[in-house]
Specification:
The protein has about 250 residues and is α/β, with parallel strands linked by helices. The protein is built from six helices and ten strands; from the N terminus they run βαβαβββββαβαββαα. The chain is elongated and about 95 Å long.
Length: about 250
Amino acid sequence: MTGSEVPPSFRLAYVPGVTPAKWVRIWHERLPDIPLTLLPVAAAEAPDLLRAGGADAGFVRLPIDRTDLSAIPLYTETTVVVVPKDHVVAAVEEVSPEDLADEVVFHPLDETLEWETRPGLPAYERPATTSDAVDLVAAGVGLLVVPQSLARLHHRKDLTYRTVTGAPESRVALSWPEAETTPDLVEDFIGIVRGRTVNSSRGRTQAPEQPKAKAKPRTPAKPSAKKAAQAKRGGAARPKPAKRGKPRRRS
């Protein structure tokens, strides 16, 4: 390797709530010689980071502006409401947005859900982050509706969450720049995320096919000594005469 060559590496961005650990583990198993660097990034900043070449690929929350970006939707998250454990909502399994009409519901500036009509009563001021909104819920001054993974990320012992039916859902996707300079590595990671095996026909790092062993030619059986002698004389073995039975006496 010359001094101007840069060894290959892979930079993976991910937004809050996404846990890439299992995919990273598989990457290290399949491509141990190619380092993978994790880059946490705010959901709103992830698309610009990818466009600027700050990461080779990233887990983002849809919708995003797909200008110069490719994306594969992976899964959709359940939407939940975060409440104090002693709140009336904690006594039920699920609620609708209409059930929250009389509650103060925080909408932080980094909110990832797309609402046509936001539920609940607006707070006097929007929290800057989801983490700040969780602290306000713990203080008992309002509720928070978020994707379930964010409720788990900001878990507190004095809080719980319940499913919100009929609410927008957050979709997580794998995205990368269309002008990606390491398309083979991106293809490798797509294969890992989609569950392709190492021998998949679409995977770049599939194990080389082993050549089939050639069948050994069969060695003809050696003729017996008797047949060899007959072949030498140029004649075939004469058939043995059939045994003749004794004539029957007439009575």
